[in-house]
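Contributing new records

If you add data, match the layout below exactly. Sequence lines come first and carry their own label; structure lines follow with theirs. Keep one chain per record. Anything else will be rejected by the validation script.
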Amino acid sequence: MKQFKIVIIGAGHVGSHCGYSLMQYGDVDEIVYIDIEAEKASAQAADIADAGIFMPHPVTVRAGDYKDCDDADIVVLAAGVPRREGQTRLDTLGDSIACMQDIAPKLKATQFAGPLVCISNPADVIADFMYRALEWDSSRIFSTGTALDTARCKRAFKEALDIDARGVDCFVLGEHGDSSMIPFSAVRVGGQLLRSLKGSRYAELDEAAILKRTHMIGMEVVIGKGSTEFGIGTVLANVVRAIVHDSHSVMPVSARLHGEYGHRDLHIGVPAIIGREGVLEVIEMPLDGAEQKSFDQSCEIVLTHNKMAQSL
């Protein structure tokens, strides 16, 4: 049987929880950590390997170097700096780009031929930077984008409507950040359009409050514990599962647009079909006039920061 190897660049909070989630899911056979702090990478690998003794699926976890990318099936980019209380993800741009400027040439020099999944913030800008630096096909380079935002959006609906979040069908689009938007016109509950449902719980729903809550959940975690890690670790594991099994799963990721939604030449959060080769297709959701305007504004913010990243 095919053995799947994944390399995680960055052994901090996010990278370590990505590895732990992958081990729990049991979809990969080998996890290799690369970090500028080699001892930290070794320690994280050893700690996760200990946990693996109790998992149903055996996984090799170790520290390595960029040579390990040559035969890797997937590379996850989790290096960078966490945002601090009061910071937006865009505020981490300078420090994150400095990390990418070190990583990109080393990764480009390898024989790696699979998908690169970016987690480092600001996620959309980092995906664009790596696309330009590596000069690979755009289908191979994407970030987890608004997948975590979408999970938080479902939580916000759960809290507001007192229903199981898994019964809400929605996507968050745009920047993985404070300019993201929710196409409320397409939100479904139990298969029915949210806006068509009758009853007091739906009539009293405040859409602006849902969006604000979606934006604030991540910062509440940062304020409370200093970083987010469990949510993004599970998001990454789901993305990897779609790649490993070539399942053609539809999930919101930061994919490169080539005219979809009226935009091109940027990575932005949109629903996409994910399979063995990466992003197989971008799904265009119908947006009403106000929703398209909100999406356009988010794209402009990302484009502005893309230019900033290229000038650093």
